[in-house]
Amino acid sequence: MGSGGQPFSVSGQTALVTGARTGIGRAAALALADAGADLILWGRTQEGLAELAEEIRGRGRTASTVAADLADTEAVRALATDLAAMHRIDLLVNNAGTIRRADAVDTSWSDWRHVLNVDLDAAFVLARTFGERMLERGAGRIVNVASVLSFQGGVRVPAYAAAKHALAGLTKALANEWASGGVNVNAVAPGYVATDNTDALRADPDRSRAILDRIPAGRWARPEDIAGAIVFLCSPAADYVHGHVLAVDGGWLAR
Fold it and tell me: Of the listed 160, 178, 192, 232, which one is catalytic?
């Protein structure tokens, strides 16, 4: 076990977190910093990233910020290629995601493609780019942020459900190829988390109550609830965990 026998330490490693400005991404970046990692914070724009970088530096780690819209596949590929050439990325957290809510018959092709570009295509481009370098080194961790909708169809989110199902499949496919090369590829599947993506649900009294009534834990998740699972999958404690999709859902799927 690495990191001086400390099973949950990622000291001396560099982590890239997408969608780092808010929500799960921000919580994961801070948790990884507390576990010893230096951070590269990726946002759609630079807005808000400088403040997070300063907070991480205040915890004794280094932090830099980069920006590219994950809906723009070519921009993602270009920035990832530059980062891979300049930095040793040991840990990749594909966290950034988006959602568009509408009945399937009212879902436009542009909305469908936008969600798939951000939630699936960008994750593959980043995993492929940084995974290739990890394989060359014989070590690395990739954690994809999936969803309980990797297992369920959801309500009025057809593109999101399709993307998150596919992300779970991609996680397993990459693990099959890369586990023997020393690269761990896993995913966390958050349940209902209080983030920007769920503002509309929490603002709807009927939907919010229906969701809460089904969660055995009796509350929505906080971003920090998901961050611990991400740190675990990045750490030596998860050395023998490959291709797993870890639900962190307050018991939602068990209901």
Answer: 160
Closest CA to 148 of 78, 220, 77, 88: 220
Mean per-residue pLDDT pooled into runs of 10, the chain (255 residues): 76 98 97 98 96 98 98 97 98 97 98 98 98 98 98 96 98 98 98 88 90 95 97 98 98 96
Clarify whether 160 is annotated catalytic.
yes
Domains of the chain: 3-249 (3.40.50.720)
Return the half-sphere exposure (C-beta side, CA atoms, 13 A cut-off) of residue 54.
4
Asked if 100 and 159 count as a contact pair (C-beta separation under 8 A), the reply is: yes
Q: CA-CA distance, 158 to 193, in Å (whole number)?
A: 19
Q: Among residues 232, 227, 182, 236, which one has the least CA distance to residue 7? A: 236
Residue 4's pLDDT is 57
C-alpha to C-alpha distance for 31 and 107, rounded to whole angstroms: 36
Q: DSSP H helical segments within the chain, as ranges?
A: 23-34, 49-58, 73-86, 109-116, 122-137, 158-178, 199-203, 205-214, 223-234
Q: At residue 223, what are phi and psi to the nearest 5 degrees? A: -55, -35
CA distance 82 to 125: 13
pTM equals 0.95
Going by the DSSP 8-state scheme, the letter that residue 198 receives in this structure is G
Q: What is the dihedral of CA 69, 71, 185, 143, to 10 degrees?
A: 50
